């Protein structure tokens, strides 16, 4: 414990703005470096998985070996050596904790320091239920009993594999198949934990559900898997948060989120991504390669993605909606902020298949320092998706003259009755604007943050209130040092 | 007994390597209203920008003292917090930043600097609505982004509203009358007068006499060739309206 404490203090004293950069000194059970079918068997065995899941993993691994890392994104990073990573790391616990009281205190302290209280009586009591994922495993899930009364399943995916195999088998990989892309395939082979949510017919989830991902161990990739199923006429709002210690070497994170939305159901999925972005010279930081997709399978199904992306050295992420059900609706609200040497290639895909489907994309990109950002979005209207509509707006804000911002929209329409709109703007915080604010007594940094917050207000309003405040603070912190 | 608020001594300076202010002298005492009049392109705005410390403007020599302190040593925001306000000639648009939180932020930055307690939202909104009403700026306007889509008159009234909220010790009105119709000019004049006390000063920069019917100056200075070439009382403004600036421009040439 002393070690962890010292580490926490050292990071704080350095005055570094990334306040989640500390390391928890906890004994971990880590598998040897490298990726082979033996390693996959070992992970599966450690997790006590059924044979069908092991077979799925091995199938994905075989396929992955013949795949190539995608090169189309506007990102440049050193090649990743997949054999020098460890694919499983779990904090050692003598016995699996049966309740929150049995969870290792170091872990509880870690989450407390991250502002995520795992004791149910704490601040967010009754408002948010949390699944805490630490490296490769879920260490605690709160409010399970209370949610179960309504028939809601909220647990780690490892637990779901054992307790609800028929649901997992039916839906896992049904939205994002292992053949989808390089990183999704890798995840399908080695995913270790994540969250499983099932909202039964007609149930409105009474609280926010959330997962908090934490990468702790060195040289460990985090490959989590989230599966959310919203049955007919149900509603759930879900939030994920992510942080990682400050390390000089890059860490790999390749996740999959699959969401199934049935008739008249609605899912709101919000992300506040604050993985370690690397230092001001671009050293270290998380490589974030994520596949997120929702299938709106039912009529009137509604899916809304909101993301605030401030972290990671490299981001590759396109939360998407497949609008299969007639009248289904997809939304994507995004704020991506890059500073220093961060790179982000992010956007969405809206695939209109059902009749009268609609989608809305609002993307706000803020680039500062030497960072580079690309909005990449696909709006596709399939044959027969009569009277489908999309509205897209991409706004970019540049701070300084050494950053870059790019917009790459793809539009494919095979339907004459579709109506598609695309608007894009690029603006810069001008010296005149800064002078105006400063002349009124507002400092330059505050002025930048006022302008940036004004710029992304429309997206921030989509976040649940408790998190909108946190996200606004996060944006201000991430902007520090971007002017002057 | 007069107390000087602003003292400018033998000031030289300009912008982008071009010297525009050449040996400028002016003292404004507490409670006084000074008008600076001059032809277009004489560098009147250069003077206000230098006083406020706008980054691209430079001072090559001279001294500026504000409330007994060396103004040239202060940053733009410090000058503002000390009580210097500039009603801008062309107020810039700031999309997405609405007037209410912006002005609250500004006021509280100034109050914090002066060691005063911050004003809470309820109290602030009440104050803002009250002052807004006087300037014919309704609560719908106050919800809008700063200067975005504002007409000339609206933007100038918003500048005056900011002055009324921030209550500066010295306000510089840089062509507060340009792009403004006669009714708006009266409203602005009344708004500015309402902010005056026997401790505050005003520097009105204009090339028309019109605004001075509403804001009556104690002194009128003719500015040409980078310095004050003639000083008089309000009658001088009326005289200039009749004769124009050609006499002074010629003198400099």
How is the topology of this model organized?
The complex is a heterodimer of chains A (484) and B (253).
Chain A: H1 2-13, E1 28-30, H2 37-46, H3 51-64, E2 89-91, H4 105-113, E3 128-134, E4 137-141, H5 144-148, E5 153-156, H6 157-163, H7 165-171, H8 182-190, E6 195-199, E7 208-214, E8 225-230, E9 235-243, E10 250-261, E11 266-273, E12 285-296, E13 302-309, E14 314-317, E15 320-323, E16 329-338, E17 343-352, E18 358-367, E19 372-381, E20 389-398, E21 404-413, E22 419-428, H9 431-439, H10 444-460, H11 465-479
Parallel strand pairs in A: 3-7, 6-8, 7-9, 8-10, 9-11, 10-12, 11-13, 12-14, 12-15, 13-16, 14-17, 15-17, 16-18, 17-19, 18-20, 19-21, 20-22
Antiparallel strand pairs in A: 1-2, 3-4, 5-6
Chain B: E1 4-15, E2 18-29, E3 33-37, H1 44-52, E4 57-66, E5 69-70, H2 76-82, E6 84-87, E7 94-98, H3 99-113, H4 121-134, H5 139-142, E8 145-146, H6 152-166, E9 170-174, H7 182-195, E10 201-206, E11 219-224, E12 227-232, H8 234-243, H9 246-252
Parallel strand pairs in B: 3-10, 3-11, 6-9, 9-10
Antiparallel strand pairs in B: 1-2, 1-4, 4-5, 7-8, 11-12
Describe the overall structure:
The complex is a heterodimer of chains A (484) and B (253). Chain A is of the alpha/beta class. Chain A has one domain (30-436). Chain A contains eleven helices and 22 strands. In chain A, the strands form three sheets. A ten-stranded mixed sheet of chain A has the order 4-3-7-9-11-13-16-18-20-22. In chain A, strand 3 and strand 4 (137-141) form a beta hairpin. The longest helix of chain A is centred in the last third of the chain and has 17 residues, at 444-460. Chain A starts with a helix and ends in a 5-residue tail after the last helix. Chain B has 253 residues and is of the alpha/beta class. In chain B, helix 2 (76-82) crosses helix 3 (99-113), helix 4 (121-134) crosses helix 6 and helix 6 (152-166) runs parallel beside helix 7. The longest helix of chain B has 15 residues, at 99-113. The mean pLDDT of chain B is 91. The interface between A and B is medium-sized, with 22 and 32 residues.
